[in-house]
Amino acid sequence: MSAFADPRPSLQLQPVGLPTTAVALHARTMSVRARPHTVLPGFGLSLGYAVFYFSLIVLLPIVAVYARSFSEGIESFAAAAFSERAINAYRLSFGAALLAAAINALFGFLVAWVLVRYRFPGRRLLDAFVDLPFALPTAVAGIALTTIYAPNGWLGQHAALLDWQLAYNPIGIVIALVFIGLPFVVRTLQPVIAELGHAPEEAAATLGAGRWRTFTRVIFPALLPAWLTGFALAFARAVGEYGSVIFIAGNLPFVSEIAPLLIVIQLEQYNYVGASAIAVVMLTASFLLLLVVNLLQAWATRRSGVDRAR
Amino acid sequence: MNLTLNHLSKNFGNIKAVDDVSLSVPSGELVALLGPSGSGKTTLLRIVGGLEAADTGQVLYAGEDTTHWPIQKRRAGFVFQNYALFRNMTVFENIAFGMRALPRKQRLKAVELKRRVAELLYLIRLPDLAERFPAQLSGGQQQRVALARALAIEPRLLLLDEPFGALDAQVRKELRRWVRQVHDQTGLTSLFVTHDQDEALELADRVVVMRDGHIEQIGTPDEIFESPATRFVHEFVGESCALPVDVRAGRVSYAGQQLDIEAPLADGPAHLLLRPQYLAPAETGIVVRIDAARRVGPRRRLEAVTGAGDRLEFEVDSDIDAGRGQTLHVRPTKWRLYSIH
């Protein structure tokens, strides 16, 4: 349409106060919804492949475990899944994993904070060491921890003088789970702390806020989503951990026997249904717990105002 | 509240970020700290606000030495370069933050606090956006919220770090005028940092030009533009061309040709600094050959080269027909001479 050809004023064509760009933008959003236009095409193909891959690698094995566990009927499932020994193992596995993840959330934050905020000799070395629990074969970690914390170990012998036993009991399990879970919290928090920068806390200080208020009202809410992610990852890893725990746990049934070990024991006795029944309980419980953490995280992200784009 | 800075210095390693700066700002004045990046202007502002500690020197608020006061006690409203709004709080909560951080006895009642925030929202012309989050605001709106948040604590002075740096040209111009209005309404002593000379000259009562951590010149916008104290100030503020000249017995000569310019300088080499606006074609003067002609608004901007190869720029009326390759005489109507030490 040419503005020159039309002698009538064209201002009446649109509501007063609504700039043309807004109209154009709105129209564009509409067209986006109708048919996505992106620089990299291939939505159909990539989604199809992603779903196929996910099904093959993740969903299929899970379905197999569920199918297997119920293959000899509900009674034998319940007998294997909810035996007293199994329930004790669940309690221990989830309890120790939650406790370890909580400890990691606290001290992992401290490590991440120190690594991001301060420059000191050996910082890069410390930064590299954080990944060690990732890289170390879990059995090696288990042997190393046992060497230190066993009643005749480097630290364990001193603890023994105080009548503290750090290995071959649930405390040992928590120590192992803290060890393997640390990097998850540190590595998820590090970039977020770096991105946050000093400006928010400086702003809070100029507005008269003391350290406690600055931390609780400004820094903590900004870090909470990443914190929960780190917690969830550390927890998930801890629940499934096997290698490092069995060396230090002592593995006494009803006391320090973790659920993954119970599965292995069932397998060694060729009790596949029993093993998969315990696996199903763990799988379901883990899924529910992670779902809760994810919901919490979504809530925290909403609260942090990050995803509130226009 | 008047502000006095006494011999402030601050080093970062070997770099002198602030180098023996003294400044006195009378109550209610709006002062611009102007300089290129790395001139120490932001560091100076942060020292005044208590965000940075000076190595030596004092900061006096109304005559009281605040050098070792904690940030919280200073009550200096600080507007950060990227606003530093709290992303997890609404506009209302951002503005109320400072009032809620007051000692319990001084805290306002909920009703009064609401009224005060509403007043500030009205002042920044965003009365309907109280429940928005910072991410839902435009840059200009965030900037205004940041200012309201700083004003909410009833600050003793206002410090603004590149307040318009991240905004587009149109919004920047509007906000500039608006900030001036707010300043005049509140009567707060204010310091703002900028690298934009237009901003400094338009907005400030006084301009402090900084370079490599020290002050080059303090003056009103007129003084800074018309009588730059050093060649650096001349070239940093406004447009400049420089000609190497010789001074002998009070007379100035350029490339062997004596110019009609008086020089209150000692004999020796000097720089003649000229502004395109203060250079005009004439019957006699420096001979130049026109290299390029561009239209700038209502006038024509000519780029020319002298016989000695120095470049000059000047403006003529657009009806003067000046083309490439043509030669003509130009004469400065205003100039500044700086001797070379």
List the helices and strands and how they pair.
The complex is a heterodimer of chains A (310) and B (341).
Chain A (H helix, E strand, L loop, with lengths): L19 H15 L8 H27 L3 H9 L2 H34 L5 H7 L2 H4 L2 H12 L6 H6 L8 H27 L2 H8 L4 H30 L2 H7 L9 H10 L3 H33 L6
Chain B lengths: L2 E10 L2 E11 L4 E5 L6 H9 L6 E6 L2 E2 L5 H4 L1 E4 L11 H10 L9 H14 L15 H13 L5 E5 L7 H18 L2 E6 L2 H7 L2 E6 L2 E6 L1 H6 L4 H6 L4 E8 L2 E4 L2 E6 L5 E7 L4 E4 L3 E11 L2 E8 L4 E7 L9 E6 L3 E4 L2
Parallel strand pairs in B: 3-8, 3-9, 6-7, 7-8
Antiparallel strand pairs in B: 1-2, 1-4, 4-5, 9-10, 11-12, 11-14, 12-13, 14-20, 15-19, 16-17, 16-19, 17-18
Characterise the protein shown here:
Chain A has 310 residues and is mainly α. Chain A has one domain (70-309): Orthogonal Bundle (MetI-like fold), CATH 1.10.3720. Chain A is built from 14 helices and no strands. Chain A has helices at 20-34, 43-69, 73-81, 84-117, 123-129, 132-135, 138-149, 156-161, 170-196, 199-206, 211-240, 243-249, 259-268, 272-304. In chain A, helix 3 crosses helix 14 (272-304), helix 9 (170-196) packs across helix 11 and helix 13 (259-268) packs antiparallel against helix 14 (272-304). Chain B has 341 residues and is α+β, with helices and mostly antiparallel strands. In chain B, 26% of the residues lie in helices and 37% in strands. In chain B, strand 9 (206-211) and strand 10 (214-219) form a beta hairpin. Chain B starts with a strand and ends with a strand. The interface between A and B is medium-sized, with 24 and 30 residues.
